[in-house]
């Protein structure tokens, strides 16, 4: 505010408001002086006439009438002036009150956030200065309140989204939360979340807003997305602009704009949040900030879920074969067998025949290939509900739920035939496998005794000539080494 102008305006206002009082005072003094002058003049006239002996009663009445007329005239003038001053004061009061009431209404409406017209400031008086100052202050307050409201909405979204994502532990549940967040932030604009697959070679549409529609963003790999390559939010006001995303121009739905926010995890982008909007109508700043919050939390949570899943998978699986390790196999069998009340089950111990010889003659790399081949054949030829694990070294365990010893034998004989065929195709040293089966009726409370019995059956299969299946219900007389195996024996090929 201009301090010099304000002081000058205030001085002028004081002068203008005190002028009637000053004029009134001056006129009172002037009229009083005139009246006193008249009284003095008449007194001297009367004194001279009295001294000359010419003073009469008529003369006395004439002087009295003249003095009364002067007094009454002064009184009437004072009354008329006071009346005019009062009317002027009342008019000024009504004018000031009306402007002050309008100013109060303006402040109340602005404070409540209602849309109001600007104050029609007129003049340079104190009220005009006050109106201008209040309008500037309320504009500043309204802008501050607007900023605080945006920050509050952003903080609220940040807190609620963080809490919601903390409650989920799968990628699918996290994406459902993201879809709900998009429905609240951009209910009328098509938005989608594209995520990279495990190979990071492809982008897939995994979450959408309520207004999302086909076609989706045509970007098919992370390297094709400009926002992912840059690692920062990018907005394109119109697909017709020279610097618009080429993928945005490829669409057939006319001119449009887009906002793309990458989903980053520790500096790496795992996807992008893509939003389309009408051309020339960019997304509001607060909406952009909210979308960036969604992208940030989405990337962080999905990254954590994927890391935990990978860690858990590594802890539960054998790194060479991809099968369950011993601990996870036993835990999985116990968990699955709890519901098998009075149901036949079978546990198998499998061991690759002459594996030490294979390692010594062909090398450990050939041994690893043999182990991986066996694991692959097992996964391809058993039922989905059968559970397979690597017990250690060249030993494997298999759990057959809802199967007796005979059913397990049929499945394992089929597995032996598939293993023989696969061994002839893969080009490495061929090998066989022996199997020992222990059967029981569920539920299974402890797996140790069953595994020990299956291990004894495996030892019996080895003693009987290898490459065969021995169950705990077989006739011991049929297990002599002279008995032919159920399938032709596969000999270990010579290593070239």
Brief summary:
The protein is of the alpha+beta class and 496 residues long. Helix content is 56%, strand content 14%. The chain is built from 12 helices and 10 strands.
Question: What does this entry look like structurally?
Answer:
This protein has 3 domains: 1-167, no CATH class; 170-314, 2-Layer Sandwich (Beta-Lactamase); 326-479, 2-Layer Sandwich (Alpha-Beta Plaits). 26% of the residues are buried. The chain is rod-shaped. The chain starts with a helix and ends in a 25-residue tail after the last strand. Helices cover 56% and strands 14% of the residues. The chain has 12 helices and 10 strands. Strand 1 and strand 2 (203-208) form a beta hairpin. The strands form 2 sheets. The chain has a 5-stranded antiparallel β-sheet. A 5-stranded mixed β-sheet has the order 7-8-6-9-10, sandwiched between helices. The protein is an alpha+beta fold and 496 residues long.
Write the layout of secondary structure elements.
Elements: H1 3-52, H2 57-111, H3 126-166, H4 171-185, E1 191-196, E2 203-208, H5 226-230, E3 234-236, H6 246-249, E4 256-265, E5 268-278, H7 285-316, H8 326-337, E6 344-352, H9 355-362, H10 364-381, E7 387-392, E8 395-401, H11 405-425, E9 433-441, H12 448-463, E10 469-471
Parallel strand pairs: 9-10
Antiparallel strand pairs: 1-2, 1-5, 3-4, 4-5, 6-8, 6-9, 7-8
Helix pairs in contact: 1-2, 2-3, 3-4, 3-7, 4-7, 9-10, 10-11
Features:
alpha+beta, Beta-Lactamase, Alpha-Beta Plaits, 12 helices, 5-stranded antiparallel sheet, 5-stranded mixed sheet, 496 residues, disordered C terminus
């Amino acid at each position: 505010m201009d301090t010099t102008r304000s002081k000058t305006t205030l001085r002028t206002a004081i002068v203008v408001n005190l002028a009637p009082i000053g004029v009134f005072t001056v006129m009172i003094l002037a009229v009083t002086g005139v009246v006193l002058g008249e009284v003095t003049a008449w007194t001297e006239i009367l004194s001279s006439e009295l001294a000359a002996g010419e003073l009469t009663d008529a003369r006395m009445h004439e002087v009295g009438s003249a003095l009364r007329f002067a007094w009454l005239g002064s009184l009437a003038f004072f009354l008329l002036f006071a009346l005019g001053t009062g009317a002027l004061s009342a008019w000024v009061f009504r004018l000031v009150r009306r402007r002050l009431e309008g100013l109060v209404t303006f402040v109340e409406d602005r404070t409540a956030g209602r849309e109001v017209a600007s104050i029609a400031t007129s003049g340079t008086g104190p009220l005009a200065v006050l109106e201008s100052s209040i309008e500037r202050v309320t504009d500043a307050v309204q802008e501050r309140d607007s900023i605080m409201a945006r920050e509050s909405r952003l903080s609220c979204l940040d807190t609620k989204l963080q809490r919601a994502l903390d409650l989920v532990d799968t990628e699918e549940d996290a994406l459902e939360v993201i879809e709900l967040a998009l429905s609240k932030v951009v209910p009328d604009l098509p938005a989608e979340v594209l995520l990279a697959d495990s190979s990071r070679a492809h982008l897939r549409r995994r979450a959408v807003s309520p207004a999302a529609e086909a076609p989706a963003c045509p970007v098919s790999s992370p390297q094709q997305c400009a926002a992912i390559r840059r690692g920062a939010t990018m907005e394109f006001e119109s697909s017709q602009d020279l610097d618009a995303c080429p993928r945005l121009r490829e669409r057939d739905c006319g001119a449009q704009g887009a906002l793309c926010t990458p989903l980053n995890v520790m500096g790496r982008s795992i996807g992008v949040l893509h939003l389309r909007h009408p051309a020339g109508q960019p997304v509001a700043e607060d909406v952009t900030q909210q979308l960036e919050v969604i992208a940030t939390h989405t990337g962080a949570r999905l990254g954590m879920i994927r890391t935990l899943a990978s860690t858990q998978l590594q802890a539960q699986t054998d790194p060479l074969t991809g099968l369950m390790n011993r601990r996870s196999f036993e835990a999985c069998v116990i968990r699955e067998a709890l519901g098998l009340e009075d149901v036949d089950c079978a546990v198998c111990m499998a061991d690759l025949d002459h594996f030490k010889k294979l390692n010594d003659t062909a090398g450990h790399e050939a041994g690893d290939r043999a182990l991986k081949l066996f694991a692959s054949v097992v996964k391809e030829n058993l039922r989905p509900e059968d559970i397979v694990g690597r017990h250690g070294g060249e030993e494997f365990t298999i759990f057959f739920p809802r199967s007796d010893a005979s059913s397990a034998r049929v499945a394992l004989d089929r597995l032996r035939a598939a293993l023989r065929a696969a061994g002839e195709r893969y080009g490495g040293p061929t090998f066989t496998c022996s199997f020992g089966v222990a059967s029981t009726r569920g539920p299974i409370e402890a797996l140790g005794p069953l595994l020990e019995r299956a291990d004894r059956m495996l030892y019996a299969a080895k003693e009987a000539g290898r490459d065969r299946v021995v169950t705990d219900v077989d006739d011991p007389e049929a297990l002599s080494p002279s008995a032919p195996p159920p399938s032709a024996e596969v000999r270990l090929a010579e290593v070239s």
